[in-house]
Amino acid sequence: MTLHVLSSLFLRKKNVLNVALALFSDAVVLVADNEADIIIDSMPIESIIEWQSAIEILITKHQLTGSQIVIVLGRGLYQSLLIDKPNLSDDELVLALPYLVKDLVNESPDDIVADGFNSLNNDRIQVFVTARQQVNQIVLACQAVGCSISCMTVESVVWCEFTAPNLSQLVVHRYGNGNLQLTAFSQHKLFFQRQLRGFDAPLVTASNSDVQVLQLDNLALELQRSLDFLSAQLRNNPISQLLISCDNDDNQQLAVALNERLNVVVQAVEPSLTLLTSTGRRIAWAGLKHSFSSSINFYSQYLQPKRQWLTLNNMLIGWLALMLVIGLTSAVFSFKSHQLTPAFISNKAQLTTVQHQLMLTQKEVQLHVVSPIKQQYLSVLKQAVTAKQATLKAVANHDVSLMVGYGQVLTQLADAALDNIAIERISISGAAMDLKGVARTPEAVPQWLGTFNHYSTLAQRRFQLLNIGRNKHNQVTFTLQAQRIQEAL
Q1: How many CA atoms lie within 13 A of 55 on its CB side?
Q2: pLDDT tens sequence for the chain (489 residues)
Q3: How far apart are CA 339 and CA 345, in angstroms?
Q4: pTM here?
Q5: Topology, domain 401-482
Q6: In whole angstroms, what is the distance from residue 476 CA to residue 438 CA?
Q7: Where are the domains of the chain?
Q8: End-to-end CA distance of the chain
Q9: Sheet strands (E) in 231-335
Q10: 3-state SS assignment for residue 51
């Protein structure tokens, strides 16, 4: 089981977009490009119910299992509609198309798949519709043979591979004995479709009878009507060529006959591969070439099944990958551990030595630790020293005059005495000296204070308040208050 999972994981072939299947109601046509050769094969069927068996036979026969397939639906398997362009974004338009065309088809929106593109007339949308059940049937048929679908387009679109990219051309084509189909392209983009009834195959024969001539004349008339309509629509790039690809007819002779009746060049479709001899094969080959740029894809992303990641194989692969990662991680750590073992042993020995030295150092530190009693006694001594320093500072700030006495101050006051000044009270404390007395006039007090500058002791005295007034005897009184200077201890 494990070997099978690993082989499916590592040996699985890469899917390649190299197969196209053109599906018709009576046949399945396969075209494959295997880089070495082109494979073209077909298988007739009675009805579309036989699609699955025909696809299985063709894919198995040519060993194309695992390929990505382009599906091209033939005429009668889809409907073509032209509707007004709604005001929707591209993402919204994809989901809204089945509901926009519900009145133009017989099925309900849930039973159909629709896709479209902007026509050359920008206010219209070219829409193609097919049955959802038919799409599911094709998908299951391809999955049953181990293939996946990358694109599911329609015959009308892929015919552009036979037209020139810079011209406007009209393709006249017929599959089997069906009705003639007219499909016009302008610069590789589908512009016009029409079906012509009543023109039986073959259109040209060797007998060249009157019936054949009349039928060719009628065909030329219908083609000319279509060309006139298209010329009115494509004024800047009118139809310049008409291409012929009709089964059961000689396309070269038909082109010559129509050239004689029309005013545009008519040519038979000449594919690069000689094996593309029928319309069905040409449609399948065109689908393979057109798949990467197809404007129609019925098998859009929202229809594709979501990939299931949580499967038994994926779980086994995940477990194997996890075991591999764990094993590799364990091996790496074991190798690193083996490399680091000598260094670890050396570092461990160094750590033991350092720890021993640390223990010795801690014991020595403990021997030098100061006793708490000694620390408390030291704190008391510091407080005592601080108190004594404060006392010394207070003594230092005491006035020096207290040591020499106040005799000199009184002597100089007596020398400075004036006749118009009488001192009644003297108060001396340190550098502060307060005086109180009477004067004959208020002006006498400032004059007397001015004489203090001639005496050394009195000149050092400073007064902050002088109060001059009169007593009840109408005498001038004065009070001098010394300046107090308080120094912080």
Answers
A1: 29
A2: 444 444 444 434 444 558 999 999 999 999 998 777 889 999 999 999 999 999 999 999 999 999 999 999 999 999 999 999 888 888 888 889 999 999 999 999 999 999 999 888 778 899 999 999 999 999 999 999 999 998 999 999 999 999 998 889 999 999 999 999 999 999 889 989 999 998 988 898 877 778 888 999 999 999 999 999 998 888 888 898 999 999 999 999 999 999 999 989 999 998 888 889 999 999 999 999 887 778 899 987 666 655 666 677 888 888 999 999 999 999 999 888 888 888 888 888 899 999 888 888 888 787 776 677 878 888 888 888 898 888 787 666 555 545 546 778 888 888 878 888 888 888 887 677 888 888 888 888 888 888 888 888 888 778 888 888 888 888 889 898 887 655 433
A3: 12
A4: 0.61
A5: Gyrase A; domain 2 (3.30.1360)
A6: 6
A7: 13-293, 312-393, 401-482
A8: 102
A9: 239-246, 265-268
A10: helix
CA 53/CA 144 separation, integer angstroms: 10
In angstroms, the CA 150 to CA 106 distance is 28
Give the domain 13-293 fold: Nucleotidyltransferase; domain 5 (3.30.420)
Rounded CA gap, 154 and 421, in Å? 140
Q: What's the CA gap between 329 and 335, in Å, rounded?
A: 10
- DSSP assignment, residue 454? G
Neighbours of 237 (CB within 10 A): 12
Please choose, from the candidates 97, 96, 90, the residue with its C-alpha nearest in 3D space to the C-alpha of residue 114.
Answer: 97
Burial of 335 (0-12, 13-18, 19+ CB in 10 A): exposed
How buried is 202 (Cβ within 10 angstroms: 0-12 exposed, 13-18 middle, 19+ buried)?
middle
Query: Distance between CA atoms of 90 and 117, rounded to whole angstroms?
Result: 10
Instruction: Report the distance separating Cα 327 and Cα 423, nearest Å.
Output: 117
Residue count (the chain): 489
| Inter-CA distances, 251 with 270, 279, 283, 422, 451, Å | 10, 11, 16, 159, 151
For tokens 């059961």, name the residue: 248
**Other CB atoms within 10 A of residue 255 CB:** 19
